[in-house]
Amino acid sequence: MGGSSPCASCKLLRRRCAKDCIFAPYFPSDDPHKFAIVHKVFGASNVSKMLQELPVHQRIDAVSSLVYEANARVRDPVYGCVGAISYLQNQVSQLQMQLAVAQTEILCIQMQQEEPALPTQMDQDEKSLLLSNNSFNNLQHYLSFASSSNVIQDPLKRESLWT
Amino acid sequence: MNSRCAACKYLRRRCPPDCIFSSYFPSNDPQRFASVHRIYGASNIGKMLQQIPPHLRAEATESMYYEAQCRVADPVYGIVKTISLLNQEIHHAQSQLAKVQAQIAFYNAQVHGNNKIQNVELPSSNFNNSLANQGDAFPHPTLPLSIRPSWSM
């Protein structure tokens, strides 16, 4: 192999790749698409500034996240990563509801198995009421957990995204 | 009296009648454009908006602003940290759900006097349509985050 070839950034920008090129460690020449997409969304100048403001040991993670964001924005020009978050939040809510229902079902089963310990004079209606009250209380507990498990903080000033 | 939009004020230029930024960066919120410009650059924002149908540009601007704020707040991971945490939360919820559904299957097997636990069929209603199979829609960012999700504490 001869002298080092320019990194993907300098190839795309058609400039000489300096020894201390800030992009070179993160945008190797064998993956031109990676820099192309980041440049398209953020711009080389902005990426350079962002990397310069970070300590060296954090730059690789920053580049990974920028590439991820840029890919999401190209795939979905309107919502980008925010669309992904909305989708994932819905998944979390659905799973938590399913979990709450399943937990309630377990409780019902356990209570039914313990039924012989209940007062025998209790009639069927009273038993149903007792079971449904306990189920409801537990479901409420899980529902309140689901609504409080809101990873997105306030910037959008909305309870849920894109309703 | 026509005043310049926040973008044109920031860029110190005349604000034309057909300025692509004016509808989305009003002059009373200069910080909004400043955030987005800092991350994306005015030129890129303009190009992106031009490629989007007009009725979707407001939402596109909103999402860009949100992402820009996340990046300013966390210059290393930006909004991707949130995605990673959500993926972890989903994975955890799926594990919990699988455990509980296995318990239900076990209890049902006991009730029906079936001791062959390995042949017990899991309830089919929800888990098999689970979101685990749809997780590929948004690949998990492989970042070595040191953030612990709140449910693990």
From TrEMBL, chain A:
Coiled coil: none annotated. InterPro entries: LOB. One of its GO terms (cellular component) is nucleus. It holds the Pfam family LOB. Transmembrane segments: none annotated. GO terms for biological process: regulation of DNA-templated transcription. Residues 5-106 form the LOB domain. Signal peptide: none annotated. One of its GO terms (molecular function) is DNA-binding transcription activator activity. Belongs to the LOB domain-containing protein family. This is LOB domain-containing protein.
TrEMBL record, chain B:
Residues 3-104 form the LOB domain. InterPro entries: LOB. One of its GO terms (molecular function) is DNA-binding transcription activator activity. Residues 83-110 form a coiled coil. One of its GO terms (cellular component) is nucleus. GO terms for biological process: regulation of DNA-templated transcription. It comes from the Eukaryota. PROSITE patterns: LOB (PS50891). Pfam families: LOB. Keywords: Coiled coil. The keyword Lipoprotein does not apply. Belongs to the LOB domain-containing protein family. This is LOB domain-containing protein.
